[in-house]
Amino acid sequence: MTEERSFGTLLVRHKLDNGIPQEMISCHTGEIEGYMIEGHVPAADIRRLLDERRDAVGLAVPGMPYGSHGMGPEDQREAYDVFLIRRDGNTEVFTSYEAA
Q: Are 85 and 93 in contact (CB under 8 A)?
């Protein structure tokens, strides 16, 4: 196994081991104050999560929706949802962003 493939496998394992369901996995992973942040989650949603201190694994934006933070101009954004990942593995919509 190449070093790159080994790192990718370890990263996916880290995500799954820390409560990110497979269907929520995306391109970027972060951790802040005990929460996992997966994908292109807007900073405002992260701040809201930190303010509310929800009992959750964290937030996720699966895939890479066009116009989400870092993925093209917001004025051309496609609709997408930010999901709250609960500790039992269930998810719920935390914030919805309409298409621009």
A: no
Residue 44 amino acid letter:
A
What's at 17, amino acid-wise?
D
User: What pairs with residue 36 in β-bridges?
Assistant: 31, 58
Separation between Cα atoms, residue 22 and residue 67, nearest integer Å: 23
Write down the pTM of the prediction.
0.86
For 33, the token pair is 């104050």
Long-range pairs for 29-34 at CB < 8 Å and ≥24 separation? 31/58
Q: Which amino acid is at 42?
A: P
Residue 45 has a CB neighbour count (10 Å cut-off) of 18
For 55-68, write each residue's pLDDT tens digit. Answer: 999 999 998 887 77
